Amino acid sequence: MTDTDDTASERGGSASTGRSRACDGATTSAEGESGIGADVENLLGHADGSDDTLRARIALQMERKRPPRLVLPRPRPKRDRHARTRVAFLRYSYYDIVFKFFVEHVLDADYLPLPEPTKRTVELGSRNSSDSVCAPFKHILGDYLEALELGADVLVQFAGPCRLGYYGELQESILRDMGYEFEMLNFATVTGKPLTEYIEVCKKKVNPNLSVPHGVRGMLIAFQMIEYLDEAQDFYLAHAGFEAERGSFDRALAAYHADMRTVVNEYDLMDAHKRGMAALRALEVRVPVRPLRVGVVGEYFTAADPRSNLGLERKLLDMGVEVHRMLNMTNRNLRYHEKNLRAGISDYVRYDMGPTSSMTIAATLKYAQEGFDGVVHLKSSGCTPEVDCIPVLQQVSHDTGMPILYLSYDSQTSDTGLDTRLEAFYDMLAMKKERTAS
Amino acid sequence: MTDAYLGIDIGSISTKGVVVDADRTIVARSYLWTEGNPADAARRVVADLASQIDRDVVRVRAVGTTGSARRLVGAMLGAAVVKNEITAHAVGTTYLHPDVRTILEIGGQDSKIICVEGGIAVDYAMNTLCAAGTGAFLSSQAHRLGVEVEEFGPIALTSKRPANIAARCTVFAESDLVHKIQVGYAREDIIAGLCRAVASNYLNNVGKGKKITAPVVFQGGVSKNVGVVRAFEDMLGMDVLVDPDGHLMGAFGVALLAAEASAGAGRGTAPAGDGDGGEGDGEPFRDGAFDFDAVGDFAFKTREIECSKCANHCEIICVYRDDALIDSWGNRCDQGAVKAGL
């Protein structure tokens, strides 16, 4: 073959390879050898500007710039050259347990655990965000930056019915501008589309070998896990305020979470949950005759995520309060029924006002009707849907006589200011309760 | 011998102190500028109060502190009660005015509204992210206009046509104010406009959504400004009561709480046989009574240390009396707990 190439006119040899490339590189060298004469004849014989001629000329010019490849590209399926990816989620309360399970058993990839968030996390996030964007954006961006520093390949962002739906795109763009290389699994890009699209995007971004049947089974366990975790949290919130030994509930809950992190199948899950709940129930509590009961309502991140609300729930529990919070992933994501929820608050609301608005109002009304002493409403500063809820809540408070404390958080909010307001709220509720008792 | 209780309210701008006797009557009152040094301000207030009472007859049994420096000064004075200013104000005002329904309060850097029903607070709100329209704003504008802030009220009352000043944001209000000065508005109209701006800003922010029912009591430093009082009366269409001791209400409230705590099994109630004074106990008490002189003798120092036990690097505030650690706070977890004697 080298002979032919050498002896044949330089132009001819080049033309054949050039053309074979133009034809998707499927031509073998043998073909080229036998067809050279005719090809050259065909191509160069009629300088009539036909397509073939033109292509050949272009090919010739290309050859001069870039020599022909010695090894032709061989199609190889993506799954054979796929390396396992390290997937990182944003931080959201204790749900990292579920995220870990989802990554390992649904996506079949490596989960990158993030350490506890620190001041640095939010500083990183704030520095690279617009100042006026809501606090969850800053927290999440901080999480992503820390995840990338720890070597994440894929970042996961949720979809959201408020601005959150656009955050994934914006965060991706900010991180790329900063020079990071990663894949973004942004569920907002497939919101409202059929399941096949979800599977497709997971395959594309994380793992092309993803097994659908295995994934479905994993998904069902993950859903069950969310419900169990929320059940344990509800129990903790209702009882930890009266713990006989300080810190006993925190320890038991942490042990339960650690147990849940090791779960690999539905049997483990059930056992871990049973063990954890039994441990929590076994703890000694000293409940006063008429304990103060406070409901926590508000925006998805700020109401449920301790680092976003500066540990508000623990602060309330430390004051000896029974805490209830309807907003969690079970109630907002798995069992959410917007229309039915709204039907219960039809005296106040006719339309869906935003991602957590119906739940905020429905929960507040429920707590008021159940005779709770007060409600704390949490939102990140500038969260429009929750700002819209406030007049409605004021009306509920006015109609039922239940006080509501409104708190707005941003990345600068101080612990001291929060303590002052919570303490005053507690004093007010406690004095009111004492007075009504006598 | 009569029992008495001391209440101190250490705010951002001013420090207030009262001594109440066993009948809950104020027997000594003090009001000074904090001047950025709460420990020293508290010491000065204590000295001022000491000069007003006959210390051989009046024995202070317990101390309460409130205001933004309550924790620091509480540690200094061995307070039996350290209470937030909202509760202290509510307790003080409802004691003096049992029929009050709404308490408006504007201080140096904060403003709050407390709704009262049947003598107990049922709802409250406090400014959160912004300090627009508080005393600090009025002070800085008085400085700009070359008028003492104390003269603001009387000057505002002489205005016939208050200027309309945008009140939403302090910075924009200031731009608006400068603009009106530059185009030649009368000084009293501008001052009256500022007073109105403070009142309308308050009602639109802190007071938003709260039902303001008469009788209304207005207190805090800004309540001393009759121009703002008049603006509130005009806007609410009801009388606004200003107590002559309105600026002391936080201190009074916390003194009442200290008295209550002392009547219970609280601290500060005559530690029996403690003849050596409170030093062993770490408190400025002698024979179960607050020792006014002891406070001046100790040197108080506050140091901030950055905890390095985890990545959060909490700033831990440590208060020392004569180089002995008496209190610390600011740690998020037990790892960072700094204890006396370490």
Task: Describe, in plain words, how this protein is organized in 3D.
The complex is a heterodimer of chains A (about 450) and B (about 350). With about 450 residues, chain A is of the alpha/beta class. Chain A has 19 helices and 8 strands. In chain A, α6 (about 120-125) packs across α7, α10 runs antiparallel to α11 and α11 packs antiparallel against α12. Chain B is of the alpha/beta class and about 350 residues long. Chain B folds into 3 domains: about 1-90 and about 250-295, Nucleotidyltransferase, domain 5; about 100-240, ATPase, nucleotide binding domain (Nucleotidyltransferase, domain 5, 2-Layer Sandwich); about 300-335, no CATH class. Chain B is about 35% helix and about 25% strand. Chain B has 10 helices and 15 strands. In chain B, α8 links the parallel β9 (about 215-220) and β10. In chain B, α3 packs across α9 and α6 (about 170-180) packs antiparallel against α7. The longest helix of chain B has 18 residues, at about 185-205. Residues about 265-280 of chain B have low confidence and may be disordered. Classes of the chains: A alpha/beta (about 450), B alpha/beta (about 350). Chains A and B meet through α18, β8 and α19 of A and α3 and β8 of B.
